[in-house]
């Protein structure tokens, strides 16, 4: 509908959207989440408060959109995982990149703020799952599926469970700041997950766990 | 020192402490955490606000103490894990109990509130680790260590990593409400962890307890 007002209007709208999201990201990384206001985001973006409220209902919605924009590449498509055919190498690459991401102080603040909102807001949690977690999980699962077809994972491996065991420990360590996130840790998670879900080396079939 | 004022004074102090902790637990399970105030806790416990502030610096400190009190048994000792000699059965028992705990609505609210505080307060996170997470982890690790001595886990198994892979997926599933927590899920986590950290030489097939 906005296109009725012409391409200039659309471009201006998109520029203002980008400015708002960049302002939200900058503010959340600069100060404590609870101190960031929609007013401050508007001021930083050089737009009126109402411009933000016309598009997003709350501060958490803007911050969430700002995070979401980070995971889109230039043409709005979400990322895929590397597939060189070597599952262990590919997963270690991805897990090491994840460790790097979580140890980046500005990312840390943003994700910590988002997790606070998600833990206490079931609707935002659902949106997070739908728009961010699920597409990422699907990309990861598709990499595991191709490994499964290549015989690098057990034919009956539960890929959802494998993903959880690969990622959840890193997430919990970060959230609770219980131990440092290191490259060695990323590698150890991959090794243990491959031991748990890799093909059985024995001739005998794996024990079925049901479910 | 309070004993100089006699056993009656000590008993009164302990009664008021218990009343405050019970009031904090009740309020946090009844309404949204951010709406709970120290005033409301004091009113519910039948004490003055200052009685709370003399002992705890903030709302989050009282709520944390209330949670901590739940994990102590009658004589203030923390729990130990069952050790029947059958690691798989013992872990499934514990993980099923954990699933039950996390699906209890009143526990859910309390732990969700606490996790919000922990994620955003590094000092509280440290206290949580020291007083709650570490003692529990030590109890769990001591069970894994006895299994390791009995040859049920690999001699070089990283027990910290094993614990994380056992518990973190359940915690993340609960925090993000991404999938239901079930008995089958508890069992699957145990099975996968035992595959990842069990002894590599499969001289005898692993046994299922049937459930």
TrEMBL record, chains A, B:
Residues 14-74 form the HTH tetR-type domain. It comes from the Bacteria. This is TetR family transcriptional regulator. Residues 37-56 bind DNA. GO terms for molecular function: DNA-binding transcription factor activity; transcription cis-regulatory region binding. InterPro entries: Homeodomain-like_sf, HTH-type_TetR-like_transc_reg, HTH_TetR, Tet_transcr_reg_TetR-rel_C_sf, TetR_C. Keywords: DNA-binding, Transcription, Transcription regulation.
